[in-house]
Design a protein that fits this description.
By secondary structure, the protein is of the alpha+beta class. The protein has two helices and six strands. The chain starts with a helix and ends with a strand.
Amino acid sequence: MVMEKHKDDEVTENKENVQMEKEPESVSVENEEVNDTPDENEAETETEQVEEEIDELEEVKNELAEMKDKYIRLYSEFENFRRRTAKERLDTIQSANGDLIEKLLPVVDDFARAEDSSKGEKADLNSVKEGYGLIAGKLNRMLEQQGLKEMEVKQGADFDAEVHEAISQIPAPKPKLKGKIIDVVEKGYLLNEKVLRFAKVVVGS
């Protein structure tokens, strides 16, 4: 009986040893499970970051597409405006030319009548001269109404490069005429106070 009891005690001790040996394994398994959790969290964080970056990229793409559309629309509007303005300017110039030509037609008619009256043996030279003088006066008045004004350029006046064009230089007949206007070869004109044609002059040197 004593031997049997001794054997039972040994079996019990062996069982306890086996259990004690197994317990660390279960603990290590639990530790492994605990260690797996941070890896999963990191994976989820990376996924969220990737999704956020994808969303930001989509946002940028949409903004770029919107800006491109606005640029194309703005460019088209500018081109239409440029063409419309150019056409309006051309129409204005053509209209202005038409108005001026229409006002010149009576002067053209007067020249035609003066030419007809100057033909033939009975033509009166004085009458012809008077007729041409009237026509020239009429033409000048009409041009003045359009803003044309003749420059006042006198011999002996100072040369002004802003309104004069020196086509030649000659020795000054008098010392006081050096750098002065000696002669006016072609009259200058202003249109609405702006130089339309420079007065061509000869300057003393």
